[in-house]
Write a structure and sequence with these properties.
A hairpin with a 5-residue loop joins strand 7 and strand 8. This protein has a single domain (about 5-354), classed as Deoxyribonuclease I, Chain A (4-Layer Sandwich). The strands form 4 sheets. The chain has a 7-stranded mixed sheet. A 6-stranded mixed sheet has the order 6-7-8-9-15-12. A two-stranded antiparallel sheet has the order 10-11. The chain contains 8 helices and 17 strands. The protein is of the alpha+beta class. It starts with a strand and ends with a strand. The model is unreliable at about 230-245 (pLDDT under 50). Helix 6 runs parallel beside helix 7 (about 210-215). The radius of gyration is 19 Å and the shape is globular. One of its GO terms (molecular function) is 3'-5'-RNA exonuclease activity. It holds the Pfam family Exo_endo_phos. InterPro entries: CCR4/nocturin_mRNA_transcr, Endo/exonu/phosph_ase_sf, Endo/exonuclease/phosphatase. This is Endonuclease/exonuclease/phosphatase domain-containing protein.
């Protein structure tokens, strides 16, 4: 894939270049959540499924990923699975719980990796672990695949998820993020602890409690904020937002998750630790001297910021390069549009085993 790249520490090592593999994480915007009133900047013809699906498939092919991690997929059975198989990928899909029609998908280039086993989980069961707190019933899911590199035989564990959206519920997000890591680590410990790659739309900005937990290994469980007011007649949430989290989205599956009227805190103030003292590093930050992540991955008229990540264990994996996000030279550059079929952009990292 052509583009502007930022280079990581491993870029100076020719051996890493030759052994590198590409991981992509991409929220593709489920067609079930596309409404012209949510994206008034985008011509209606560009929002039609036939147009968007063909654009998405061309884009996915152009990414030339070895591992594709996708969120908000709602056409896996109706076309995407067949496309992926024909393009040389083995893939698995995990639908969201409840009445949701979209889910997560991981596709693996079979020439590079053998897909050994897939694992899935649902975050709704967190409610049972927290006094049946219904605020944790959000129908979000996660999944992981255990891979074996065909040439070397090395194992790799890649996971993806799509966490809850509402900035009024940072504790729900932290609970889900902690469970995300617990699920992945549990799989890793069953298979001699291979290197881990975490991906996904975390619905959390780089300065959020979710990222503090994942990058440092611990955080204090935040308090919920007052509940969101009811959606207006257009189905959009009002503009109030929580600090260090994205505002309510103007589109996507988030609009279909109704706020809970009585926010019962989830372990307020409790120190949340990742299992085994683990912590992760952002691939994008590693390619920017560790100083900052991608400047944005989601851009609509009401929000521009980073929600999508590729996280690695820095002692086990190295970053060769990451694909830079487009420069925002136009103030009215919003997604989706005629060149971008989703309201998110893909994040792309070339990695190698340490």
């Amino acid at each position: 894939m052509s583009g502007d790249w930022a280079y990581g520490p491993a870029a100076v090592d020719p051996d890493c270049w030759s052994r590198s593999f590409r991981v992509v994480s991409y929220n593709t915007l489920a067609q079930a959540y596309v409404r012209s009133e949510y994206f008034p900047h985008c011509p209606r013809a560009e929002l039609k499924f036939a147009r968007r699906s063909s654009q998405l498939w061309r884009q996915l092919q152009a990414l030339t990923a070895d591992v594709l991690c996708l969120q908000e997929v709602d056409w896996y059975e109706s076309g995407l699975s067949e496309h992926l198989h024909g393009a040389g990928y083995d893939s698995v899909f995990h639908r969201r719980t409840g009445q949701k029609r979209d889910g997560c998908c991981i596709a693996v280039r079979r020439e590079r990796f053998a897909l050994v086993q897939a694992y899935t989980w649902e975050y709704n069961r967190l409610a049972e672990l927290h006094d049946h707190n219904e605020r944790l019933v959000r129908d979000n899911v996660g999944m992981a695949v255990l891979l074996r590199e065909r040439e070397s035989g090395a194992l790799l564990l890649v996971a993806t998820t799509h966490l809850f959206w509402d900035p009024h519920d940072p504790d729900v997000k932290v609970a889900q993020a902690a469970q995300y890591v617990r699920e992945v680590v549990d799989v890793a410990e069953q298979h001699d602890a291979p290197p881990i790659v975490l991906t996904g739309d975390l619905n959390a900005t780089p300065d959020s409690a979710v990222l503090q937990l994942l990058l440092s290994g611990k955080t204090a469980m935040p308090l919920p904020l007052p509940p969101s007011p009811q959606t207006d007649s257009a189905g959009e949430q009002p503009p109030q937002q929580a600090s260090a989290d994205p505002p309510p989205s103007t589109a996507g599956s988030d609009l279909f998750d109704e706020p809970v009227s009585q926010p019962v805190p989830i372990g307020a103030g409790e120190i949340i630790l990742l299992p085994g003292g683990r912590s992760f590093a952002s691939a994008y930050a590693a390619a920017n001297d560790g100083l900052h992540d991608a400047p944005w991955t989601n851009r609509t008229p009401k929000f521009s910021g980073t929600l999508d990540y590729i996280l690695i264990e820095p002692a086990r994996l190295q970053v060769v390069r990451v694909l830079r996000v487009p420069d925002l030279r136009q103030a009215d550059f919003f997604l989706p549009n005629c060149g971008y079929p989703s309201d998110h952009i893909p994040v792309v990292a070339d990695l190698c085993f340490s």
